[in-house]
Amino acid sequence: MKERKLSPKEATSAAAIQAAIDELALAGGRLVLPEMDLVLDRGLRLRSGVELVGQGLKTVLRKGPGRVYPLAGYHNYGMADVPLVDASGLEVGMTVSIHDNRTHGGFYETFATITWIEGHWVGLDHGIEADYSGTEQPCLTTVFPLVWGNYVRGAALRDLHLEGNRAGNAKGMGGCRGAAVYFGNSQGLEITGVSERDYFGEGLGFQMCRDVVVRNCRFDGNTGNGLHPGAGSTNALLEDCVADSNGRSGFFFCVRANHITLRRGSFHGNQLGISIGTRDCYNLVEDCEVLDNRGAGILVRQGPQPVEVHSCLIRGCRVEGNALQEGQAQVEIWGEAHDLVLCDNRIGGGKAGIWIAENARAIFLENNHYHLCHPEVIAGPLGFAYQRPQFEHGYGTAGPAAFRHLERTSQFPH
Predict the structure, then answer these.
(1) Domain segments of the chain: what residues?
(2) Whose CB among 105, 110, 328, 403 lies 3.0–4.6 Å from 98's, allowing a Cys bridge?
(3) Looking at residue 409, what is its pLDDT?
(4) What is the pLDDT of residue 412?
(5) pTM score > 0.85 for this model?
(6) Which stretches of the chain score pLDDT less than 70?
(7) What is the CATH number of domain 3-63+144-378?
(8) Among 185, 163, 188, 168, which Cα is nearest to 176's?
(9) How far apart are CA 147 and CA 388, in angstroms?
(10) pLDDT at 413
(11) Residues 303, 307, 309, 312, Cα dihedral to 10°
(12) Do 43 and 61 meet the contact criterion of CB atoms below 8 Å apart?
């Protein structure tokens, strides 16, 4: 693999680092950052075949200030530009987010790169994702992932530290279009040895991705979730990761996050420990430590058929001291969930151990150890399975049909 090492003089700006990434992407290779502490005015875009590598905690990338630029008025879907009241301070190459009060936080938010500026008009590298209403405070913000990639294949991020600078950003990044580290519609990713904190949004997020490996990372003190395998993401392995003191879940399985293994994770002091929801199936959670979260340690969210949670195995976890401020139990199973297996877990610390909703069914419990739970289990008459359900689960078990919901492009024909 070709390797290029940047000197401190060559890595004085995000634009300089981006130019090096883009040059290396022509043939692929590893870009090594020096020991440094750099404020980013734009996100670093990873390219296919490129590894971006730092020097561990001695390579620090900081999110720059997040300014808000009001739009001059209504602007409609698909336009690759926006009219601003004032474009002062913006530059070509910066990464920005556009939304109004109705669209902030979802897929209708736009994340884009500035391609040109003429007066009050700012050009973007793709069309905006929705109509933005003039009466709903539409704006462009210099809010962006610190490192990101879309339609990337075979990329890696390793051994660096990210500072989110929440206090310096007036608005956050929505979790569907961004995070401190974010990938969309990508394949064959590795993220190792990355630490991150204090972002106005999610720590790590990836949407509609496949074949993702995340090891030895931590994401702390963010306003959103710590780790967020996002909509449709399939076949991911997350090992030895930590997410503490986040404003939402330590680990959030988003819609249709399937065939995922979460192993030896540690989730302390978040709103929720681990959250599993709509159509999140064929997943394995094992040997995790889920302690002292404000709500449930493990939450299986509401979901009606045919998008209910099913076919997940949770084993060998320590789930204690949760539901400190809200929730009914250490483990809560809502909606029409079924065919879940919880075995060999240590569950304890006030309230109920496991709470199973009346309309959940076929939940198999085996060899769980309860301490100071009152009562140990609450369930309706259909809640229990008396024979262990059999199903495939986790990273490396997905057949071809498990990927057919993901977008097919010339880059990723499947």
Answers:
(1) 3-63+144-378, 68-141
(2) 110
(3) 61
(4) 59
(5) yes
(6) 409-414
(7) 2.160.20.10
(8) 185
(9) 42
(10) 54
(11) -170
(12) no
